[in-house]
Amino acid sequence: MVKTTVSVIKADVGSYPGHSRTHPKLLEVAARMLKEAEGSTIIDSYVTHCGDDLELIMTHTKGEDNEEIHELAWNVFLECAKIAKEMKLYGAGQDLLADAFSGNVKGMGPGVAEMEFEERGSDPLLVFMADKTEPGAWNYFLYKIFADPFSTSGLVIDPRCTRGSPSRSTTSWRSGGSGSIHRKSHTASLPISERRAVM
């Protein structure tokens, strides 16, 4: 079975105002160039942006790190950077660190994320995009999706999550002598057989 590859390649080729947004003209040019490549180089494409980064999302059957795919993205970025310079956009072409394509855009400025897989009848795909941040920006949201029992029904019905608390807490009170009351807590682990009785 032929594997499908999803390539997401992004670069800041010019923005307005400042480092905040990709100009609609650049999105239009990039979308047109990728549409022209559909059916020959790529299967499908989608052009969007995250902040000032122009994002090219492409599907194809050529595998990861394919020279033809990376060259297509590079040419799109070069054309958009040229237009951005003509429009006098902020930071025009700033992510394009090399003068000529060398077979792979890695190390040339653009960011790349690619994944090859056997496509099924229904394979939803999410692309997480962020600008001016680090990958850790997604930690809380991914935790809430996959690890929080209040939003992940699989955790609610998992027998390992219904055993109860693995400890017992007891509290004792004593007077401090001058009318003050101090609280002392103690926590002890209980075997599973005793946990249900305490709860």
Automatic annotation (TrEMBL):
PANTHER family registered for this protein in UniProt = FRUCTOSE-1,6-BISPHOSPHATE ALDOLASE/PHOSPHATASE, FRUCTOSE-1,6-BISPHOSPHATE ALDOLASE_PHOSPHATASE
Q: What is this protein called?
A: Fructose-1,6-bisphosphate aldolase/phosphatase
Give the metabolic or biological pathway: Carbohydrate biosynthesis; gluconeogenesis
Which stretches of sequence are listed as region Disordered?
Answer: 161-199
**A GO biological process held by the record:** gluconeogenesis
Catalyzed reactions:
beta-D-fructose 1,6-bisphosphate + H2O = beta-D-fructose 6-phosphate + phosphate
Q: Which UniProt keywords apply?
A: Carbohydrate metabolism, Gluconeogenesis, Hydrolase, Lyase, Magnesium, Metal-binding, Schiff base
- Origin, by domain of life? Archaea
Required co-factors: Mg(2+)
SUPFAM superfamilies given for it? Sulfolobus fructose-1,6-bisphosphatase-like
Q: Where is the composition biased (Low complexity)?
A: 162-175
Question: Subunit details for this protein?
Answer: Homooctamer; dimer of tetramers.
